[in-house]
Structures are given as C-alpha cells and as structure tokens.
Amino acid sequence: MIINLFSILLAVVIILLISGIRIMREYERAVVFFLGRFYQVKGPGLIFIIPIVQQMVKVDLRTIVMDVPTQDVISRDNVSVKVSAIVFFRVIEPEKAVIQVEHYYEATSQMAQTTLRSVLGQHELDEMLAARDKLNADIQTILDQQTESWGIKVSNVEIKQMDLNETMIRAIARQAEAERERRAKVIHAEGELQASQKLVEAAQTLAQSPSAIQLRYLQTLTEIAGDKSNTIVFPLPMELLGPLGVGAKRSVT
Questions:
Q1: How does strand 152-163 pair with strand 80-91?
Q2: Which residues, in sequence order, are CB contacts of 233 under 8 Å at separation 6+?
Q3: Burial tier of 44 (Cβ tally within 10 Å: 0-12, 13-18, 19+)
Q4: What is the CA 81 to chain-centroid distance, rounded?
Q5: Given its phi and psi angles, is residue 36 left (phi above 0), alpha (psi -120 to 50 degrees) or beta?
Q6: What is the mean pLDDT of residues 207-228?
Q7: pLDDT the model gives residue 5
Q8: pLDDT averaged over the chain?
Q9: Ramachandran sector of residue 235 (left: φ over 0; alpha: ψ -120 to 50; beta: rest)
Q10: Long-range Cβ contact pairs of 132-141 (< 8 A, separation 24 or more)
Q11: Residues with Cβ < 8 Å from 171, sequence gap 6 or more?
C-alpha cells in the first residue's frame, strides 16, 4: 500500500517537473510571474517553470507588420482624403509589453490610427501629396514616443495610399495643366528677353563701327541673292557711296 502511494506521488512529481519544461525559440521570451508578481524574463532556449506557483506569458520579439485601416482625414484646407498606412514595430521590453498594456498589438493599432489622422490633419493637400517622406517620419517619431512606455519600438511608418474623390482629381489635373502652361509662358518670355538683350548689344556694337554696318548690309544682300526665284528691290544706303564719291573727286583733281 505504501509502495503504491509512493509510486503515485513520484509519478505526479515527474509529471509536474516535465510540465514545467519550456523551450523558447531565439525570437521568443517568457515573462514569468511568481504567485502573481513579476519575477523575470527567461529565454531563449530551455527554461523551467515551477508548476502552480509560476505562470508564463510568451512574447514574440520579431518585427510585426501592421496594416492601419483606411482613415478619413480632413486636411488643413478642408479636403477629405482616405488614407491607409503600414506600421513596422517590435517588442524590445517584453515585461512592459505584458504589464503596462493589456493587448499591445490592438493598443498600437489604435494609437497609429489616431496619430495618422492628427498629423495629416495639420497639413494641406499639396503637402500631403508632395512631402510624403516627411509625413512618414513625423508619424513614426510621434508613434514611437507614445508607445515607448509599453516596451514597443516603432521602426518605420509608410503611408500606403491616398484616395481622392473624382472632383478633386479633376481639379488637380486642371491645376497641373495650368502650371505647365505658366512654365511654358515664363520660358518663352525669358527667351524673348535674352534675345532682345543680345539685339541691343549687337546694335550698340554696330553703332560704334560704321564699316561693320556696311559689311553686315552686304552680307545680308549676299544671303538674299542666293534665292534666284524672287526679284528683290532694295535701297542703296548713301553711306556706301561716300567712299566712292571721295575717290572720284580725288581722280578729277
């Protein structure tokens, strides 16, 4: 009878000891509580949990990719935009992730949604479309500060998509077309200004040398004479006859 009782007790002890053996993977940690109070963080590898008096909560330390549901955001210039994003975060302090917050994944998701609406609502639509990298960095910084007390590290935030209604899409297309036309007119005006400046410089240079004007005139006549299909009537400047008149007077004398 005593032997049977001893065998039963021994079997119970062996079962309890075996049930207390746990194996933690490299990316897992065990937050151990002793009689309801935090004891220590164990792992990775083989660990032992004293049955009944110790309890364990397993925490995954790998980076979690979380989709932020589409949010209705009102920009600073009162434009409604539907925005979705992705948050990359991981647990760096397992005991805080278990003790400080009930469900750290759901808490981080809710915090990401409110932060996304808050940050984007402070910017105009043009800034939201053009400065996406800056917005990502701002959201990541704020979200990381808010989740630090939970033992969470937010490594990156990426705005995935911004959806506008058809009216706003057409308005943006018209704005882009008007901007292209404005740039074309500015470039054309700058070209006209540069050309006029060069013409003024050329006129000043020719005015300083009368012989240069005559050479330019003769060059123009040569270019026109190359076209044999037209009859050209052109005036003869008196300045060209000046040297000839002087030469004739000298020969008569």
A1: antiparallel
A2: none
A3: middle
A4: 17
A5: left
A6: 66
A7: 79
A8: 83
A9: beta
A10: 132/159, 135/159, 139/85, 139/112, 139/115
A11: none
Q: Are 227 and 253 in contact (CB under 8 A)?
A: no
Six-digit token string for 212: 């240069």
| pTM of the complete model | 0.66
Question: Residue 224: how many CB atoms within 10 A of its CB?
Answer: 11
Residues 6+ apart with CB under 8 A from 157: 85, 86, 87, 88, 112, 136, 139, 140, 143
Buried b (16+ CB within 10 A) or exposed e, 86-101: bbebbbebbbbbbeeb
Reported as a pLDDT band with limits 50, 70 and 90, residue 227 is: low
Q: Judge contact between 125 and 81, C-beta under 8 A.
A: yes
Q: What is the DSSP letter of 114?
A: H
Give the dihedral sign, CA 83/86/90/91. positive
Task: Please give the Cα distance from 241 to 75 (Å, whole number).
Answer: 77
| Mean of pLDDT values over 196-209 | 76
Q: Is the peptide bond prior to 44 cis by the omega test (within 30 degrees of 0)?
A: yes
Helix axes 210-225, 238-252, angle to 10 degrees: 110
Instruction: For residue 45, give both structure tokens.
Output: 């590898």
Q: Tokens 């049930």 — which residue?
A: 19
